[in-house]
């Protein structure tokens, strides 16, 4: 199935251990001034989206808009997910060329697909559930 890049915030980027038990201990013992700020947490959430798109597609960050949070959801296992919209300032031919030049995490996918907005609901491409939810959130926000 086709999927969209999904950002994964990295706790270590805001000074929090990534391992579960270490993270719990950190929050139980950290002094107030050692805790990450709300701004740091928010920035990591949004920057991880851009970082993942860059890593998976090879599109430079300066060719991407700031991520726009469209919706939050949980999957069938109740894992939370945040759905973002990011616009590229380059066309599909340039994106394909950059992707084919080799993305850092290009191994996560084997092809790209471009679908016109007006065709998103009728396309027969097999999207993942999260990608379907992101498409629906986008179309809803666009009034479609």
What does this structure look like?
The model has no long low-confidence stretch (mean pLDDT 89). A hairpin with a 5-residue loop joins strand 1 (68-74) and strand 2 (80-85). The protein has 144 residues and is mostly helical. The chain has 4 helices and 2 strands. The protein is 38% helix and 9% strand. Strands 1-2 form a two-stranded antiparallel ribbon. It has helices at residues 20-29, 38-57, 92-102, 129-141; strands at 68-74, 80-85.
Task: Give a summary of the structure in a few sentences.
It is built from 4 helices and 2 strands, in the order H-H-E-E-H-H.
Intertermini distance: 24 Å
The helical percent reads: 25-40%
User: Helix- and strand-based class?
Assistant: mainly alpha
In N-to-C order, the SSE pattern is HHEEHH
Largest sheet: 2 strands, antiparallel
Question: How are the strands ordered across the major sheet?
Answer: 1-2
% residues in beta strands: 5-15%
Number of beta-strand segments: 2
Mean pLDDT: 89
Query: How much is the radius of gyration in Å?
Result: 17 Å
Described by the principal axes of the CA atoms, the overall outline is: globular
Low-pLDDT ranges: none
Count of helical segments? 4
Question: Top keywords for this entry?
Answer:
144 residues; 9% strand; globular
Topology, please?
Elements: H1 20-29, H2 38-57, E1 68-74, E2 80-85, H3 92-102, H4 129-141
Antiparallel strand pairs: 1-2
